[in-house]
Amino acid sequence: MRHQKTSPNPRKKTPAKQELAMVARTIYGLEEVLAGELAEIGAKNIQLLRRAVSFTGDKAVLYKANFLLRTALRILLPIREFVVTNERELYQGIQRIDWTSYLHLKQTFAVDSTVNSQFFNHSKYVALKTKDAIVDQFWDKFGRRPSVDIKWPDLRFHIHIRENKCTVSLDSSGYSLHKRNYRNANHPAPINEVLAAGMLMLAGWKGQTNLIDPMCGSGTILSEAALIAQNIPPGILRNYKYSFMNWKDFDKALWKSIREEANAKKKTFEYKLLGYDKSAIAIREAKDQLFQPEFYPIRFAKSSFEDLNSPVKEGILVMNPPYGERMEDDEGIATLYKAMGDKFKHEFKGFDAWLITSNLEALKSVGLKMAKRYTLFNGPLECRFVQYPLY
Ligand SMILES: C[S@@+](CC[C@H](N)C(=O)[O-])C[C@H]1O[C@@H](n2cnc3c(N)ncnc32)[C@H](O)[C@@H]1O
Q1: Distance 385 CA to ligand 1 centre (A)
Q2: What is the pLDDT of residues 306-356, one digit of tens each?
Q3: For 225-261, what is each residue's pLDDT tens digit?
Q4: In angstroms, what is the span from residue 311 Cα to ligand 1's centroid?
């Protein structure tokens, strides 16, 4: 049976049960994990795309997707697709949409874009052209135009151009969902929260044993591990409004019930979450977040990996060591990775060790047999996330 899909409209009331077509964007390599999460919140027609997963669901699924998905960056609702090979076609395609049905003159808006096409090089330029086409339509109709607000717009639109296919979507999330709002922003190389959560889920983490991050930096992996282990929604501490809250059809009662239902599912966690780093500053800053009850199970201490004595005898180890981009000599990074392999063997027998790195050469110096290996992207860096069972 074909499902009924509907385009959203933030200026109209939509019935709560109306089936919406949606796309959750993610990091390359996490599509399957995200599809699994979507199935759990009741999404239907789930299909893997590149760096994204499409699905359908009602308004409750839309709210849950924003609040509960650990591996989604944003939830988009496609409103139009058309073919584009140049700037003029882009402008015309955008102008063919009746923007007055989406946007009110008094509302502010912003346009984001992602471009992966031989016809367009700069995503910022595509966003700018789209904004111009929207604004011009208002000028022509009313002699006035809505304002752009890049930071806190009432509505956000998203343009995705892949080769010659342009998809215009309404962005229901606003600020990216990886911004969980728990951590200190000062660490020089923090891992993206969505990537950390995805790594833990690929490693099978459900909070059923101890977890150690011996190079924890600002503690992102442990923070995500704490949320997963206690079944706490990733959006729990977010203090930025989701974009869908500015839509006319925002259902406050439904949103409240979804939050309450999720909060009631919180679990207790009985093992240890341990973070170490050789940098005293990193540890001091990581400890700053421990006043939040969600992170009470975590313990941070300063230690170099080489000197670390594990206080627990079993568990999993998940780490994001330096990749060596900033190290001048390759020998230094090879020595570090060799020391990691030695430490795994001698100190962490009985553990399952997982690490992510973009440095495939250094990875060879670990010198242990890998069991699993995934390709993930850490920002622009193609990485391997690998498992060493240390039994
Ligand atoms: C890429 S960062 C980890 C970032 C972390 N995942 C986060 O989200 O903030 C690597 C960390 O390894 C630490 N480090 C490097 N060599 C180390 C060693 N030998 N022992 C312990 N920590 C080390 C650095 O201080 C740095 O904080």
Answers
A1: 16
A2: 999 989 999 999 999 999 876 555 669 999 999 999 999 999 999 999 999
A3: 999 999 999 999 998 889 999 988 899 999 999 999 9
A4: 19
User: What are the residue ranges spanned by the domains of the chain?
Assistant: 20-171, 193-233+269-389
Q: How far is the CA of 349 from the centre of ligand 1 (A)?
A: 22
Q: Cα of 320 to ligand 1 centre, how many Å?
A: 7
Give the global pTM. Answer: 0.93
Q: 193-233+269-389: which CATH topology?
A: Rossmann fold (3.40.50)
Distance in angstroms (rounded) separating the CA atoms of residues 324 and 319: 15
Q: Positive or negative, the Cα torsion across 67, 68, 71, 77?
A: negative
Percent of the chain with pLDDT over 70: 94
What's the pLDDT tens digit per position in 273-284?
999 999 999 999
Q: Which CATH number fits domain 20-171: 3.40.50.970, 3.30.2130.30, 3.30.2350.10, 2.30.30.30?
A: 3.30.2130.30
* R_g of the chain computed on alpha carbons: 23
Residue listed under structure tokens 């697709």:
81
Atom of ligand 1 nearest to the CA of 336: 19
Q: Output the ligand 1 site: residues, CB below 6 A.
A: 187, 189-191, 215-218, 220-221, 277-279, 282, 304-306, 320-322
**In contact, 317 and 351? CB cutoff 8 Å:** yes
Tokens at residue 375, please?
């390709």
Nearest-atom number in ligand 1 for the CA of 304 is 20
Closest residue by Cα to atom 12, ligand 1, is: 215
Q: How far apart are alpha carbons 30 and 53 in whole angstroms?
A: 10
